[in-house]
Design a protein that fits this description.
The structure is a single chain. This protein has 468 residues and is α+β, with helices and mostly antiparallel strands. It has 17 helices and 7 strands. The chain folds into 2 domains: 183 residues; 224 residues, no CATH class. It is globular, with a radius of gyration of 23 Å. The relative contact order is 0.10.
Length: 468
């Protein structure tokens, strides 16, 4: 059976999606996009519209645009019979928003009706219209519209069914979008949608593997040029083949997402409801990536070429893009990338000499495995420790590889902290940039800044090597 599945990965894993892209090509989509884009500037941060504000449009104008949205959804709905219940609920939520005077929007009913993970099919299209913020994009809850398709090839569906059960995960790709996604955002999460109350549980979460792949290809290509890193031939192929890179990211995302709820974990592995030092979030994200790296090695041994590709992608994305992307204010993804680089460097898996970066890929796999085991041990022992002790032990792990800021209170140890305070108050003593960039990354950040910014709004259609 394994041989059959591996062959399926080779045969179908690099093929194109089965979707026809009918949605974004339909004239009604253009009208929908224009109407949504016209409404967005009138909205406040919470999604409401104050018609008494200076420069605000008239209510009749906004209602006219809203009617255009509803008419366009009705016209597009026959193309998407699998979302019929959602489209009905969406129209009701839109009309209720208008009837309530365009106050803070509440789209809970349509959110509950939208169930894209209930029947995943490769190439299946969805029309998404919600008031929402976009992670790493627009912080305001503006009305957004997205035309997307599902990325769910047969080999991935079989792996999810037999090895990596993750019924809520949805690999997706853009067809088109409104301005909230003309940003660095690469996720579609129900948590971002404006609702009157959060559902007891969410049933889906989508990640745009096409944007991840295109962004990865452009940034890593530039980073390899800057650092004179020569990639192995099979890794180089990831930078020249968008479809292959997308297949890599959708597998990585599925395993990463699943790992948040597997292993020796605290009660809330996502830590959404907790206030913790940001290195705890960084270690959790890194743990999930290193688990994906480990599982990818097993898949590669079983004959899946996507497993080999995931290992290359995890290392290159973590080493090059994560540390130098975004602000330095509690940048936990950046911290995880810095930690991985330092661990590999200090264990001679990579070297920076004569202004040239070299990686011993076999040793990198060994060192990465040891780092994963170190983090797993921290988690396992943390179950028996008080929260503050667990935080301190995690700090010790990170600071064993990365130099803390010289002004850090936490770096001075427990004697410097007021332990009479509740743990959440001790988070106030964490510096915004507790572990600053190294000399290497300070220089790299300057050289890659324009390239990273050029990936704003990137899609699979953009040339991988062109920087703005």
């Amino acid at each position: 059976m394994t041989e059959t599945l591996a062959s399926a990965g080779r045969d179908r894993g690099l093929s194109g999606p089965s979707g026809e892209g009918r949605l974004a090509a339909h004239p009604a989509w253009s009208r929908l996009k224009e109407a949504v884009t016209a409404i967005r500037p009138a909205q406040a941060k919470d999604g409401s519209i104050d018609f008494d504000a200076e420069g605000a449009p008239g209510r009749a104008e906004v209602e006219r645009h809203l009617d255009s949205v509803i008419e366009a959804v009705r016209e597009l709905a026959p193309l998407l019979p699998h979302d019929a219940a959602y489209h009905r609920a969406l129209e009701q939520d839109l009309r209720r928003w208008a009837a309530d005077g365009f106050g803070v929007p509440d789209f809970l009913d349509s959110l509950l009706a939208f169930q894209p993970a209930a029947s995943r099919a490769d190439g299946r299209e969805h029309l998404v219209v919600f008031p929402m913020y976009t992670q790493n994009g627009n912080p305001d809850r503006n009305l957004e519209a997205v035309a997307l398709r599902v990325v769910w090839p047969d080999w991935l569906a079989e792996l999810e069914r037999t090895r990596y059960d993750n019924p809520m995960f949805l690999g997706i790709a853009f067809e088109d979008f409104t301005p909230g996604y003309d940003t660095h955002s690469a996720v579609l999460f129900p948590e971002t949608i404006a609702v009157r109350k959060a559902p007891e549980r969410f049933s889906w979460g989508g990640i745009f593997c096409d944007r991840e792949a295109a962004r990865f290809r452009r940034v890593v290509h530039a980073a390899c040029e800057v650092t004179s890193l020569t990639l192995p031939e099979d890794a180089q192929g990831l930078l020249t083949d968008q479809e292959r890179s997308q297949q890599t990211f959708v597998l990585w995302d599925m395993i990463h997402d699943r790992t948040h709820s597997h292993g020796d974990l605290p009660f809330d592995p996502f830590m959404i409801k907790q206030r913790q030092p940001y290195w705890m979030y960084g270690l959790e994200e890194l743990r999930c990536d290193l688990t994906a790296f480990h599982e990818a090695g097993l898949l590669a041994a079983d004959g899946y070429p996507q497993g080999r590709d995931v290992q290359y992608a995890v290392l290159l994305e973590r080493l090059f893009r994560f540390p130098v992307t975004g602000e330095r204010h509690r940048n936990y993804d950046g911290l995880g990338g810095q930690l991985l680089f330092a661990c590999l460097h200090q264990n001679d898996a990579l070297r920076w000499r004569d202004n040239r970066l070299t990686i011993d890929w076999d040793r990198a796999r060994e060192v990465t495995a040891r780092l994963r085991e170190e983090i797993e041990t921290l988690y396992r022992r943390g179950i028996d420790r008080p929260k503050i002790v667990h935080w301190l032990k995690a700090y010790e792990l990170v600071s064993a590889y990365l130099a803390p800021h010289p002004g850090s209170t936490w770096a001075k140890g427990p004697d410097a902290l007021d332990l009479s305070l509740p743990p959440r108050r001790l988070v106030d003593d964490v510096l915004p940039d507790e572990f600053p960039l190294s000399l290497f990354y300070e220089a790299l950040a300057k050289k890659l800044r324009r390239v990273i910014e050029s990936t704003r709004g990137i899609t699979a259609a953009a040339p991988a090597t062109r920087a703005a």
